[in-house]
Amino acid sequence: LFPPTPKNKITLANETTIVAPLGGYQYVPIETIEPSNDRTLEPWTDCPIHHISKVYVSSEFKEKAKSAQLFFGTIRDYVSGRPTTLE
């Protein structure tokens, strides 16, 4: 579906036919979402199956959260104001 193909061409208004760059390269379609709808960095604290709230009070979690503070501090500018913690 996406390898270069000389069939990937277009006819311009002056009736010149051109092939897409790189021998007919076709871009892979990418679907994006608004930052306010992104759930990739959100915790699932209300999940009754996984009992995630018990994880947050464990010493292992607290230790990992402390060690991740530097990383989360560096990505703060790239997540559109969303929380950058493990909680």
Structure explained in plain terms:
A two-stranded antiparallel ribbon has the order 1-2. A hairpin with a 5-residue loop joins β1 (9-11) and β2 (17-19). 30% of the residues lie in helices and 7% in strands. The chain has helices at residues 21-24, 52-56, 59-75, and strands at residues 9-11, 17-19.
Number of strands: 2
How do the helices and strands follow one another from N- to C-terminus?
A: EEHHH
Provide a count of the helices: 3
Structural class of the helices, strands and pairings? mainly alpha
The end-to-end distance, rounded to whole angstroms, is 41 Å
Notable characteristics:
single chain; 87 residues; mainly alpha; two-stranded antiparallel ribbon; 3 helices; 2 strands; 7% strand
Write the layout of secondary structure elements.
Layout: E1 9-11, E2 17-19, H1 21-24, H2 52-56, H3 59-75
Antiparallel strand pairs: 1-2
Quick overview of this protein structure:
The chain is mainly α and 87 residues long. Helix content is 30%, strand content 7%. A hairpin with a 5-residue loop joins strand 1 and strand 2 (17-19).
